[in-house]
UniProtKB/TrEMBL annotation:
Coiled-coil blocks: none
Family, as annotated: Belongs to the bacterial ribosomal protein bL28 family.
Keyword Nucleotide-binding: no
Top-level taxonomy: Eukaryota, Viridiplantae, Streptophyta, Embryophyta, Tracheophyta
Annotated InterPro entries: Ribosomal_bL28, Ribosomal_bL28/bL31-like_sf, Ribosomal_bL28_bact-type, Ribosomal_bL28_sf
Organism, as annotated: Leersia perrieri
GO annotation, biological process: translation
Protein name in UniProt: Large ribosomal subunit protein bL28c
GO molecular function annotation: structural constituent of ribosome
Keywords noted in UniProt: Ribonucleoprotein, Ribosomal protein
Pfam family, one: Ribosomal_L28
Length: 128
């Protein structure tokens, strides 16, 4: 048993950190890449693409405001845009268009028409 302890103590693994000529610690694992994984696929898994809470027609965004208590203590809160999924009839294309838009944009579309509002916002309603 004593011989086993001696043999394990003599075979030490190499340290993972080395000091450079400037005195900074550098890792032996720096610059290594995993086989079969590209950086694009790993970043997509880590950071999924999420639809922002912005209306494409009116450019309404989330507002930062204060929540004020009875004791006048102010804490930050977010006021989100009232976004709705809506299927609207597009007369020029002779079909329904599914859109995610704010209720303010919906009122504007009812007043001026879908073509005019989309043209002013620079949105192409044709399928890609």
């Amino acid at each position: 048993m004593a011989t086993m302890l001696c043999s394990s103590s003599t075979a030490r693994p190499a340290p993972l950190l080395r000091t450079s000529s400037l005195g900074f610690a550098t890792s032996q694992l720096a610059g290594l890449t995993l086989r079969g994984l590209s950086t694009a696929s790993t970043t997509a898994k880590l950071h999924p693409i999420v639809a922002r809470r912005v209306c494409p027609f009116t450019d309404k965004k989330t507002n930062r405001a204060n929540k004020v208590s009875f004791s006048n203590h102010k804490t930050k809160k977010q006021q989100f845009v009232n976004l709705q999924y809506k299927k609207l009839w597009w007369e020029e294309g002779k079909r329904f268009v599914k859109l995610r838009l704010s209720t303010k944009a919906l009122k504007t579309i009812e007043k001026h028409g879908l073509d005019a509002v989309a043209k002013k916002a620079g949105i192409d309603l044709n399928k890609k």
